[in-house]
Amino acid sequence: VLKQKANSSNKSLSTCQTYTKKKHPLKVGNSQEVPAINGNRNVVKAKPTNTMDNGSAKDNPPLAKPKSKRVATDKNLNGAKSNGKGCKEKKKNGNILMEKGDIKHKRRKAEEQAEQQPKEAEIWFDDVDPKDIEAAIGPEAAKIARRNLGLETGQSEQSVEQVLVKEKASEGLTGAVAMDCEMVGVGPKGEDSIVARVSIVNQFGKCIYDKYVKPTEEVTDHRTAVSGIRPENINTGEDFKTVQKEVADILNGRILVGHALRNDLKVLFLDHPKKKIRDTQKYKPFRQRVKNARPSLKLLCERLLNVQVQTSEHCSIQDAQAAMRLYTLEKKKWEAAVKNKSNNKNCK
Question: What architecture is the 173-341 domain classified under in CATH?
Fold first, then answer.
């Protein structure tokens, strides 16, 4: 009887174990406690895995590691990309557009640079070449100098001829003509001057007369570096008397424009009515603008026309064109001033 009871108890225990295993199966991927078996109170915890209920770890690769915070913030929902300087850039049609942050940064930088540049009120000029100012202070100071001196800057890319000559214009005589002469030296040291070339242009800068003059005396200094005259030019030149008469005929009754015309008329042994002379060296408004009592033609052209003349050997045609262009620049005011001056004299 005792053996039967023991066998019966063992069967019940076996049935209980089987029932317990079926009722509490382990779920993959979850950490659960397994009920105690045979009265044991120890708890066994299942290890978690990355597999799903319906798949194994081999079928599902491990999850990618999250990107660093900097990389993750490099892109936003609008497709903007950080450039690492606190500014954002947007791509549009292949071009990168800077956003407000970058614009503010650039504006602030420009303001800082502007503060370092010389202010217009801090710079004064007294007959100083803008080139010298640029070498001593900088390009910004030279720019201010040119502006204060009335120097036009819009023609910097144009050639000298484009500035001095009106392309589609008459090539004949006009009411005003400009003349310039090149001279050579005579005498023991070549200090005295005689005419070697005469050039005349009309009001539009078109050359209407240009001749070399055969010397009337022995030339001791051709002054080639300045005059551009060489022996072969004047040895085959026109006779002085012929040139003198031709020039006198052209100037007769016309306004004569030039620079330091007294010297040109002197070597030609000619005279011209004072009221018909327009000398760019003596014109008071020009002298005031360049702050020079006797400005050179080169200085006037650089500051008032923004062109370079007489950079090497002089050319009488170009010098005449330059004088004419300066005259036409102020023609209305100049002629009005001459008229007023004449009227005042008549009243007296």
Answer: 2-Layer Sandwich (3.30)
Under 8 Å between Cβ of 210 and 197: yes
**How many angstroms from the chain centroid is the CA of residue 14?**
100
Whether 240 and 213 have beta carbons less than 8 Å apart is answered as: yes
Backbone angles phi, psi at 277, to 5 degrees: -100, 135
- Where does the chain have alpha helices with state H? 2-23, 69-72, 100-116, 130-136, 139-148, 160-164, 224-227, 231-235, 240-251, 261-268, 284-290, 297-300, 316-329, 331-347
Per domain, the residue ranges of the chain are 173-341
Q: pLDDT for 158-184, tens place per residue?
A: 578 888 999 888 899 999 999 999 999
- Distance (Å, rounded) from C-alpha 155 to C-alpha 325? 14
Cα distances (Å, whole numbers) of residue 205 to 164, 322, 326: 6, 8, 11
**Single pTM value for the model:** 0.56
CA distance linking residue 277 with residue 178, whole number of Å: 10
Alpha-carbon distances of 164 from 62, 158, 308, rounded to whole Å: 81, 10, 11
